[in-house]
Amino acid sequence: AFASAFLRQEPHLHLLINNAGVSAGGTTEDGYSLPFQVNHLGHFLLTQLLLERLQSCAPSRVVIVASRAHCAGRLRLDTLGRPPPGLLSTFQDYCDSKLANVLHARELATRLQGTEVTCYAVHPGFVNTELFRHAPLWLKPLFLPLVWLFFCDAAEGAQTSLHCATHDGLERFSGRYFADCRLQEPWPLARDDRLALALWEASERLVGLAGAGGSPSP
């Protein structure tokens, strides 16, 4: 609905920053895990629905807010979208979604080669926002003081996203991963081109995209 309204009302789009994120457990009304749907599938679908406009307004950029937590991600393509098993299911789910963010940027860049649309995955740092509002009550007295002492504030956490959105000369780094406003190498799984392609194709199926046109199937 948002994409349809935006495309009707706004003729220009040069920048898309995918920043939505949750760390809570549970499933959505679509039957997918909450973190995976919000943190990855929502970004994937929105980007696809707006991609034609981004291309027509090029040069343009897509920034996908990932996390260093991608290092603990493990994508199981046969059960993609379902909460992982185990006591740390919610944490693993979050990490999996962040690995998906980095791989999404990598495959999107591959598909956009030769265009003037570029994309970047970023680690914003450990930021004191409401991301952790769904943490278990028993964990909050232990965890929240650390957040207040050591995490950066939202303005500081936005710097790497803004760097990738606005800094000149980053086009040659499309598909790469940034942290602290610098190019960095992600975890080896996040550099796996075959996994990136498989995730893309699975994500298309999960969100109901009909072919390469970016239109949801009825």
TrEMBL record:
Keywords: Oxidoreductase. Belongs to the short-chain dehydrogenases/reductases (SDR) family. InterPro entries: NAD(P)-bd_dom_sf. GO terms for molecular function: oxidoreductase activity. This is DHR13 reductase.
